[in-house]
Amino acid sequence: MSLQWEAIVVNALDPDALGRWWAAALGWETGLDEDGDLTVVSPSDSAPDLLFATVPESKAGPNRLHLDFRPDDQAAEVQRLPNLGATHTDVGQGEQTWVVLADPEGNEFCVPSARP
């Protein structure tokens, strides 16, 4: 028996807007799954899709699971992503080599330093 990682599901008040934000942030493509939900897909098909599902309530508290996106240039991404609508956030990380940001609905994600 085996499993293949298909998607990461992101709950959202406005899944279309949040999905399009993530597509712009990652430079990925949008699509629809078989149920008509918005998906964000890696152009190289090298990562799981992001699937955006509607929920009636706002996010409450820190994420139990968050995504890390390793950039080519951390400083450039940490400047670019807030220009798209991300916000800097503190989850108790203190001084670290990564930067914690949140998407427009408050979902935290990290931008680590570039790999050597």
TrEMBL record:
<dbReference type="Pfam" id="PF18029">
    <property type="entry name" value="Glyoxalase_6"/>
</dbReference>
<dbReference type="InterPro" id="IPR037523">
    <property type="entry name" value="VOC_core"/>
</dbReference>
<dbReference type="InterPro" id="IPR029068">
    <property type="entry name" value="Glyas_Bleomycin-R_OHBP_Dase"/>
</dbReference>
<dbReference type="InterPro" id="IPR041581">
    <property type="entry name" value="Glyoxalase_6"/>
</dbReference>
<protein>
    <submittedName>
        <fullName>VOC family protein</fullName>
    </submittedName>
</protein>
<feature type="domain" description="VOC">
    <location>
        <begin position="4"/>
        <end position="114"/>
    </location>
</feature>
